[in-house]
Design goal:
By secondary structure, the protein is an alpha+beta fold. It has four domains: 1-91, Phosphorylase Kinase, domain 1 (2-Layer Sandwich), CATH 3.30.200; 105-275, Orthogonal Bundle (Transferase(Phosphotransferase), domain 1), CATH 1.10.510; 281-370, no CATH class; 375-487. The chain has twelve helices and twelve strands. The strands form four sheets. Strands 1-2-3-4-6-5 form a six-stranded antiparallel β-sheet, covered by helices on one side. Helix 10 packs antiparallel against helix 11 (422-457), helix 10 runs parallel beside helix 12 and helix 11 packs antiparallel against helix 12 (464-487). The protein is elongated and about 90 Å long. The two termini are 63 Å apart.
């Protein structure tokens, strides 16, 4: 191995800043320009690894010349000596406030950032996570399009250059072939069963890297309920985004090849909250609806204020019939709003403004329903709503137990006692598939009960006949809903 002060092809070595299983990374300076660079040196003691790395470098430099991707680390210089192979790369960013020559300076990797956040007050935001993962997905997409696989994607091999996340360490890069040898770092390297079912090792590497990025945990804990969130806890994360991220991880690492993402673009779309149908997009749509509803409410409040002024005028006017005609004519142009006597009626609203018959309270507002239903029918509706709410609560309670079974079975399938035993893995997968079916069925049942409750709860006033039919049909509909799981 080289020593500090050695000069290799004009690059003066300063000190080692990283060590791996096959070599060392050195901080060096190009003497001609005084630029700081990173130099990786591999000893000739392991000729097979040296040959693999040299082959990967030649291939990588050939294809990267045709790619326009700022998130792939470039290789600027390659050479061999009697002692081994070395190549030069741009120097990554370092810790803030430290000079490159400081002994404590180290290259900034994603692994280093994750380690820092484990003891910080806050974890990464959803925006920060997307800012890391989306450029990496694009970089790997380009490598895949060029016909190669990286095979060693992990937080340690993701560097930051001028703030950009970049994929480095291409020593295991190889051509994408029908049979790919399992290589890489345990946990982040795709398991044999995944590769044997057509899985892309880089898809696995990105999914497990995403898991570590959102939870701070190693990939061996994927799918375990106790390890879904970072050390700061569930309350520290943006839940819709985290659910979105975990769902993407599950799809990317799915045992069923048909359920996996077909392309890296699909993986990226599953993470990007601008995509239609994602939790982020749903939240955005909800916000728009809420803003519109707020505007409507404000308009109604302004309208009510104007009507109150008219109402006062009705009391004071010596010509109430004429004044009321003016009010009625004015309100006629507003859809859904009418005036009955001195009562303002707003469609689908339970709040009205009316003159009170109570002596001493001429200005008191009285909340009355627009349509009054017989008491026995109202009681039947209330009972039906209570029964549906009770059933939904029971399903949600059952869901907690099913969620634990789902996570436990997923972990058992991902980490079998004997990874080489296909029989054990098949049994574990069958248990996982059963748990997933029960969990999904429960979610469907709860959603159907909720929709039925909402249909009755938010019925159109006056549609008593339709409500009666709904209430009568509840027992049969509940049987159908609960038998859904038995049929499947």
């Amino acid at each position: 191995m080289p020593s500090p002060g050695d000069i290799l092809d004009g690059y003066r070595l300063t000190r080692a800043i990283g060590r791996g299983g096959f070599g060392e990374v050195w901080l060096c300076q190009l003497e001609a320009t005084r630029e700081w660079k990173a130099l990786k040196f591999l000893s000739s003691a392991d000729l097979s690894q040296l040959e693999q790395e040299l082959k990967a470098l030649i291939h990588y430099r050939t294809i990267i010349a045709d790619l326009n991707c700022p998130n792939l680390v470039t290789v600027e210089h390659v050479n061999q000596t009697g002692d081994g192979l070395f190549y030069v790369m741009p120097l990554a960013d370092g810790p803030q406030g430290l000079n490159t020559q400081d002994a404590a300076w180290q290259p900034l990797t994603l692994a280093a950032q994750i380690a820092q956040r484990r003891t910080a007050a806050t974890w990464f935001s959803a925006a920060e996570i997307r800012a890391v993962m989306l450029p990496l997905l694009e970089a790997v997409r380009q490598l895949t399009a060029a016909g190669v696989v990286h095979r060693d994607i992990k937080p340690d091999n993701i560097l930051f250059l001028r703030g950009r996340p970049c994929l480095g360490d291409v020593g295991l890069l190889t051509e994408d072939a029908a049979q790919i040898t399992r290589r890489g770092t345990p946990g982040y390297a795709a398991p044999s069963w995944y590769l044997e079912t057509g899985g892309n090792p880089d898809m696995w590497g990105l999914a497990t890297t995403l898991y570590t990025l959102i939870s701070g945990n190693n990939p061996d804990k994927v799918g375990r309920g106790a390890f879904l969130y970072p050390p700061q806890g569930k309350a520290s994360v943006e839940r819709p985004a985290w659910d979105q991220f975990h769902h993407a991880i599950f799809r990317a690492t799915n045992a069923d090849a048909a359920e996996r993402f077909l392309r890296f673009n699909d993986f990226a779309k599953a993470l990007d909250n601008s995509e239609t149908g994602s939790p982020g997009a749903a939240t955005s749509k909800t916000s728009k609806v809420l803003r519109r509803l707020t505007a409507i409410v404000l308009c109604l409040l302004a309208l009510l204020g104007g009507v109150e002024a008219f109402r006062q005028h009705l009391h004071e006017s010596t010509r109430p019939q004429a004044t009321q005609s003016v009010v009625t004519a004015t309100l006629a142009i507003i859809p859904g709003v009418t005036l009955s006597g001195s009562t303002l009626v707003i469609k689908a609203s339970m709040v009205v403004i009316t003159d009170s018959d109570t002596p001493g309270h001429p200005d008191k507002a009285s909340p009355l329903p627009q349509h009054q239903a017989p008491r026995d029918k109202v009681d039947a509706v209330d009972v039906a709503l209570a029964q549906l709410q009770q059933k939904r609560s029971a399903l949600l309670k059952e869901r907690e137990s099913l969620h634990k079974q789902f996570n436990d079975s997923y972990h058992a399938w991902m980490n079998p006692p004997d990874p080489k035993s296909m029989a054990d893995r098949k049994v574990a997968y069958e248990k996982f598939a059963q748990a997933k079916t029960r969990y999904d069925t429960n979610g469907w049942q709860e959603n159907e009960v909720l929709k039925l409750w909402q249909k009755i709860k938010y019925r159109t006033p006056g549609d008593t006949a339709e409500v009666e039919e709904l209430v009568k049909a509840i027992p049969q509909r509940m049987v159908e809903i609960m038998q859904h799981g038995e049929k499947d």
